[in-house]
Amino acid sequence: MALMLILVVATGGMAKAQSGTCSNELSNLNVCAPFVVPGSSNTNPNAGCCNALGSVDTECLCSTIRIGSQLRSKCNLPPLGCAN
């Protein structure tokens, strides 16, 4: 989730982002930041976060994750490998 918040800025190439819809949906996820930052003691999202997440189109979210994983190779970094 933290990666998605970071990628809001980096998703300019997506088709839906060009219309602003996906980009706007993702920027609304900023309310979830306190719940996903590593080391946060509060990992239970509030209603605002849940509503924002529920309003993001599934394809928008999936495209953002795909683009984020592709950015690493474009930056000559090793592939992302998350334990959980």
From TrEMBL:
Q: Where in the cell is it found?
A: Secreted
State whether keyword Signal applies: yes
User: Which residues belong to the signal peptide in this entry?
Assistant: 1-17
Q: Bifunctional inhibitor/plant lipid transfer protein/seed storage helical domain location, by residue?
A: 22-82
Checking Pfam families in the record gives: LTP_2 (PF14368)
Concerning SMART domains, the annotation shows: AAI
- Quick one: where is this thing mainly located? secreted
**What is one GO cellular-component annotation here?**
extracellular region
Entry keywords, A to Z:
Secreted, Signal
Origin: domain of life: Eukaryota
Q: Which InterPro entries match?
A: Bifun_inhib/LTP/seed_sf (IPR036312), Bifunc_inhib/LTP/seed_store (IPR016140)
Which PANTHER family does the UniProt record give? PROTEIN YY1
Similarity section:
Belongs to the A9/FIL1 family.
Name of the protein in question: Bifunctional inhibitor/plant lipid transfer protein/seed storage helical domain-containing protein
Give the organism, scientific name. Answer: Arachis hypogaea (Peanut)
**The organism's lineage?**
Eukaryota, Viridiplantae, Streptophyta, Embryophyta, Tracheophyta
